[in-house]
Write a structure and sequence with these properties.
- The protein is mainly alpha-helical and 530 residues long.
- It is globular.
- The chain contains 21 helices and no strands.
């Protein structure tokens, strides 16, 4: 009996281990499928339109490897840690009968997680006219307030489309009074705030809150938190620019000249500890929230605690690798490619190249995978990952193409943003509510670290080469990337609605034909009997 039991245990462990290996292989394969297309585009450009120094190319290759490994670990880790933690806190907030306590917890969570977001640090460094701490705290305040609004919306069953309409109208009114140089920065802040740390947690928080409320609208209420939390930073930065009256400044980043591949490798090794420290500081508030939540509510059992802890470690290592690869490997390559294409005689190739890179780069955003999986789970496969991914890619490709056109011509961003948001808000009245939540969440998700560390430097390099104003012409790319998916995802919803109506009409027609046949045979039988 003892030997049989031992054999069974060994079989189970081996089976579980092989399952884990297959899962890790699948995660690495999915990450490679996302990153390699953009890597291939850059390599083709480096031997055609924009030749790269050997050191920059080596940095890019190292960055590609780190991106694939980092995204794989992040995907595994966030599923083990961020999702159960966010859902647990969301369930507890919904169950709480102390409304003021729930509001306070939501505000603190929103502010802490925003301060922890690495993408916000990147944006703050690129806006020298506003002190970093002032900008970060303003954005954190906006996210905290709007996470509270999201919680109240879920509890009170307030339609998401109504809130979006009200708050985006407020954004448009404030933008009239804000300095024009800071309108792109304000909209960019809404995109970068919802990054790889914030999105998995907030989306899981929404799922937890909606699961307790239940009902036929629980799937719809699972989405929309990221959408509302993206509006808070826009409003807060617009108010800050009006009150603070900052003087616009720009900084030109000088690309390092790496003469050998060894120099490039050493640079990469020097950068990694910096991002390890940055991500560690970002993770401390989340670890603190986890510990405090567990001490007060005792929600997780011992094995769940171990699983979440291991998941946080995976997420941490994955983010360190990903951000190192994106910042040290992709950022200099993006800036140099943008500058070299803009210096060519046919500089309008920037539009086509930008659209191509934008189409593929969104697939390399870590949080996009989280969104696609949650959409498929919540809708029980009715909305597939493939359809969401394709709609996101088309939206981001279009937005980057328009951004490159702005870089070349100096067209202001405001008309594009007004037109885009008017169209997206108008569509909300004609699509199923779940598509509205997914669409506005996807806008925040699409504008992640790959956009800020690769596509934005690409635009900045091109803008500097064209002699344009970086603050007005290059900035705003993140805002455009966050805006266009609102339209493409909802158009997907419209098309889905049309197909559903066609299926219903076809079913009614077939049913009518069957009824006609039955009626015909009934009449024949009556004639025979007569």
């Amino acid at each position: 009996m003892t030997f049989a039991l031992a054999a069974d245990i060994i079989f189970i462990k081996v089976h579980e281990g092989s399952g884990l290996v297959r899962f890790i292989r699948g995660a690495i394969g999915e990450s490679a499928k996302s990153v390699l297309p953009i890597a291939a585009i850059v390599l083709v450009l480096s031997v055609s339109l924009a030749s790269l120094d050997s050191g920059i190319l080596v940095l890019f290759i190292f960055g590609t490897v780190f991106l694939i490994l980092g995204m794989s670990l992040f995907t595994i880790g966030s599923g083990m840690s961020m999702q159960p933690l966010g859902e647990g806190i969301g369930v507890q907030i919904s169950r709480s009968k102390k409304f003021l306590a729930a509001i306070l917890v939501s505000f603190v969570l929103g502010a802490l997680i925003t301060i922890a977001e690495p993408d916000l640090q990147v944006l703050a460094e690129q806006v020298p006219s506003i002190p970093n701490l002032v900008l970060i705290l303003s954005v954190a305040l906006g996210v905290g307030i709007f996470l509270v609004i999201s919680m109240v919306r879920t509890k009170k069953n307030i339609p998401l489309s109504r809130l979006l309409l009200i708050f985006y109208l407020a954004v448009m009114v404030l933008a009239v009074f804000a300095p024009s140089e800071f309108i792109p920065t304000a909209f960019d802040s809404g995109g970068v705030t919802t990054g790889p740390i914030t999105v998995p947690f907030i989306m899981a928080l929404g799922t937890g809150m909606a699961s307790i409320k239940g009902g036929k609208h629980s799937g719809e209420d699972s989405f929309g938190l990221v959408a509302l939390c993206s509006i808070g930073p826009i409003l807060s930065v617009l108010i800050l620019s009006i009150c603070f009256s900052p003087v616009p400044e720009t900084t030109q980043t000088i690309l390092g000249e790496y003469l050998t591949t060894k120099d490039a490798f050493l640079f990469f090794l020097r950068e990694m500890p910096l991002y390890a420290k940055e991500v560690l500081i970002a993770f401390l508030p989340i670890v603190g929230v986890f510990l405090i939540f567990q001490i007060f509510y005792r929600r997780f059992h011992k094995h769940q605690m171990i699983r979440i802890s291991v998941g946080m470690l995976y997420t941490y290592i994955g983010l360190v690798l990903f951000l190192t690869g994106a910042n040290a490997g992709f950022m200099p390559a993006g800036r140099l490619i943008g500058a070299k294409i803009a210096e060519r005689e046919h500089r309008y190739l920037l539009v086509a190249v930008g659209m191509l890179m934008g189409y593929f780069v969104v697939s390399a955003e870590p949080a996009v995978h989280t969104l696609k999986k949650q959409v498929e789970e919540v809708t029980n496969g009715a909305i597939s990952q493939q359809s969401i991914g394709r709609a996101l890619s088309m939206g981001v490709g279009l937005s980057v193409g328009v951004s490159m056109l702005r870089v070349l011509t100096g067209i202001p961003i405001y008309p594009f943003l007004i037109g885009g948001y008017v169209i997206s808000l108008a569509i909300t009245f004609f699509v199923p509510p779940i598509y509205t939540g997914i669409a506005f969440d996807s806008g925040g998700v699409a504008s992640g670290p790959m956009t800020t560390t690769f596509m934005l430097p690409f635009a900045m390099g091109a803008c500097e080469a064209c002699g344009g104003n970086v603050m007005t012409d290059a900035f705003g790319l993140v805002a455009m990337v966050a805006m266009t998916p609102l339209i493409t995802i909802q158009v997907l919803g419209l098309w889905s609605n049309v197909k559903r109506k066609r299926r219903i009409a076809r079913a009614h027609q077939e049913l009518s034909q069957i009824e006609d046949i039955i009626l015909y045979y009934d009449e024949r039988e009556e004639e025979v009997e007569a």
